[in-house]
Specification:
Rossmann fold, alpha/beta, 7-stranded mixed β-sheet, 6-stranded mixed β-sheet, about 375 residues
Length: about 375
């Protein structure tokens, strides 16, 4: 089936859901008390929607779990009992499980799930039509049917605000499962080191046997956690770099704008700054075999800063491709520009429309039976 025949033409239900929540006179309850609930709360607050109550399953309430960000927690069961009618906003990523739980309680609530709350109005059907040749080019490059299913399901999720088409396509083995294959001689570059979670997953997957690790993390607080964790685990042959990855070594200045940070040129206009460098300058002539990037939309620039390393070594690439509307266009195009020797795959690693990764595997590895 042609790509465009699989793309839906509908409005983003996120707009309608926000409007309904803005206009309701019934209480609004957040079902969940974790990072996703925090993201959704921030998104709704920016649209003048206030959460009245935070709830979790009664079985999870404990002396240690009595509040969320300073707000008292109650059970979702009690919310159904005390409200004649109310609104429930699902605040964790397994929305299918959440809807099933809520459906067993009662029918006196309207239930909402806000997909990818930091990406409001990501793109619409017209955007796909306007760029159809580029999207079809990427679709044609994808090496298997699963990749193509994920491609269309992701686009449909962004157009509609409904990620349910991605649910059964989700694989939580991110970066180091299929379609990649690791050896005991990996030189691994981790762009977006956070607190070391990906590095430790890598080390586990190679049974602590590898050549070298470079991990980049620009946020000072996260970097300190990363360094502490690396030391506590006694990792050897690892460089931790307190900088972001970019196309050149410089300092980027940002201005905070609602839920986004926008690059600005003048220091006086900046709310904060981030030091950045390039992979090429950092790794030198090391024989890099694997590059992972999850850097909040800076992937394209970071790939440019790794051009020499990529063309020389043809490492496996695991590049997050969900931060920007044109990620599914510019990232595969640039990778193919660097080398036609790459085979491209998409895999999806969360129930909502986040954590989609573009995997570029050198043909030498695929032809050697690495997949």
């Amino acid at each position: 089936m042609a790509m465009m025949d699989q793309i839906i033409d509908t409005a983003d239900r996120k707009f309608d859901d926000v409007k309904k929540l803005q206009e309701t006179t019934d209480p609004i309850v957040m079902y969940g008390a974790g990072s996703y609930a925090r993201d959704v709360t921030s998104f709704l607050d920016s649209h003048n929607v206030t959460i009245d109550e935070y709830c979790i399953d009664e079985s999870y309430l404990s002396p240690e779990q009595q509040a969320f960000d300073g707000t008292p927690l109650s059970s979702i069961e009690s919310a159904y009992q005390k409200h004649a009618h109310f609104n429930v906003v699902i605040g964790f990523n397994d929305y299918v499980k959440a809807r099933a739980t809520l459906g067993r309680l009662s029918d006196n609530a309207d239930v909402y799930f806000i997909d990818a709350p930091n990406q409001y109005g990501f793109f619409d059907h017209q955007y796909i039509q306007d760029n159809v040749e580029s999207f079809e080019e990427t679709f044609g490059w994808l090496a298997d049917e699963k990749s193509k299913e994920i491609f269309t399901a992701f686009i449909n999720a962004k157009i509609s605000g409904d990620p349910s088409g991605l649910y059964k396509l989700t694989d939580f083995n991110q970066y180091f499962g299929e379609p990649t294959k690791l050896s005991d001689r990996e030189y691994f570059v981790d762009c977006g080191g956070f607190d070391g979670d990906t590095v430790f997953s890598f080390v586990k997957n190679v049974n602590s046997t590898y050549g070298h690790i470079y991990t980049f993390e620009p946020d000072v607080a996260n970097y300190e956690k990363l360094v502490t964790a690396v030391k506590s685990k006694g990792l050897q042959n690892i460089d931790t770099i307190n900088a972001g990855c970019w196309s050149s070594a410089t300092t980027l200045r940002f201005s905070s704008n609602a839920n986004m940070a926008v690059i600005v040129s003048g220091e006086a206009d900046a709310d904060f700054s981030v030091p950045v460098t390039t992979i090429d300058e950092t790794v030198g002539d090391d024989p890099i075999t694997f590059i992972k990037m999850d850097i909040e939309g800076a992937e394209y620039e970071a790939l440019q800063g790794a051009a020499r390393t990529i063309t020389k070594n043809l490492p496996t690439l695991a590049i997050c491709a969900y931060h920007k509307p044109d990620d599914l266009i510019v990232l595969p195009q640039y990778i193919k520009q660097l080398s036609s020797d790459y085979t491209l795959y998409l895999r999806h690693h969360q129930y909502m429309s986040w954590e989609m990764v573009l995997y570029a595997i050198p043909k030498a590895k695929t032809e050697a039976g690495a997949l």
